[in-house]
Design goal:
Length: about 300
């Protein structure tokens, strides 16, 4: 099974003109490049914990202040919202010059949805996603996070038909993503937001069926609290398709550690087991001073990674 998948991937890479050396890796090209580029900040053996912040999570009034804060705290991954991203490419490129920080992912920002009953709504999603993917590629982002359909996006296709049409569209978006040296990252959400895609295993199974190096998935610890029976099982099911991770406190989506008993250790164990080399990125709010709670959360996650 694994060999035939790899062969299919190589054929796909050849077809779309990705270089032979990259194809020989037999893995997702953006992932391979990204793994090489990921900052190595700790000397312990095995995978290191690469932490990132969404732009809005980092304290500071300007992007420069936010990046200064991140570097001072050993955080080298920046996640940016996808809204109007094309108009921000130059600003972000300039801000990242002479810094170690890289763009980890672009969070949503697309319009329409891919499981819509109406073709016009599906096309709106494809077109707006392509615009974001082009900007994501220009910024060197590992990918763009995409949700196939939120509960409120209606009318949507019935489940079986929705999955089939989703896969066809993801093949097109995946090919476009690879041409722009980036990926689509499918994000499962909890049932209150998106019944259609709730679990990492299901997202990974969609990736498998799309079979494009440009289509990957992620897990979000906060959504996983409500949907997954086991953090380790969830991340293991993501396997080679796992391209990004979101983190927040487990119950109220604040900074990790702001809810009592916040625990990420079994999930981290799984990330180590699959040799995960990308980022664990904060997607959360707080009612407290970010200059205090963000460093505390970073410390907690580093301690739990070492325990995993
Ligand atoms: Mg998330």
């Amino acid at each position: 099974m694994a060999n035939s998948n790899n062969d299919t991937r190589r054929d796909f890479l050849k077809k779309i003109g990705v270089g032979g050396a990259m194809a020989a890796l037999g893995t997702i090209p953006a992932l391979s490049l990204a793994a090489d580029a990921a900052p190595k900040k700790r000397t312990q053996k095995g995978p290191v914990l690469n932490l990132g912040l969404q732009e809005s999570v980092a304290p500071g009034q300007t992007l420069t202040e936010k990046l200064d804060f991140m570097e001072a705290n050993g955080v080298y991954g920046l996640e940016i919202g996808g809204g109007k991203l094309a108009s921000r490419v130059t600003e972000i490129q300039k801000a990242l010059q002479n810094r170690q920080i890289k763009v980890t992912a672009i969070c949503a920002g697309f319009q329409g949805w891919l499981i819509a009953t109406n073709e016009a709504d599906r096309k709106k999603c494809i077109d707006s996603s392509k615009e974001i993917l082009a900007a994501a590629g220009a910024l060197g982002s590992y990918g763009m996070i995409l949700v196939p359909g939120f509960n409120g996006q209606q009318p949507s296709l019935p489940f079986v038909e929705a999955r089939e049409i989703l896969i066809e569209q993801l093949k097109e978006l995946g090919e476009f993503a690879v041409k722009n040296n980036t990926t689509i990252i499918l994000e499962p959400l909890n049932r209150r937001e998106a019944w259609f895609l709730r679990m990492v295993a299901d997202a990974a199974s969609i990736c498998r069926d799309v079979d494009s190096p440009g289509v990957t998935c992620m897990g979000d610890f906060w959504h996983m609290t409500w949907e997954e029976t086991d953090d380790m099982g969830a991340f293991l099911s993501g396997q080679k398709y796992l391209n990004h991770v979101h983190v927040a406190s487990r119950k109220t989506r604040r900074m990790p550690g702001e809810d009592e008993g916040d625990n990420y250790i079994t999930g981290f164990k799984a990330l180590k087991m699959i040799n995960y080399k990308h980022y664990v990125s904060f997607e959360c709010g707080t009612k407290n001073d970010k200059n205090i709670v963000v460093p505390a959360a970073l410390k907690l996650l580093r301690e739990q990674w070492d325990l995993a």
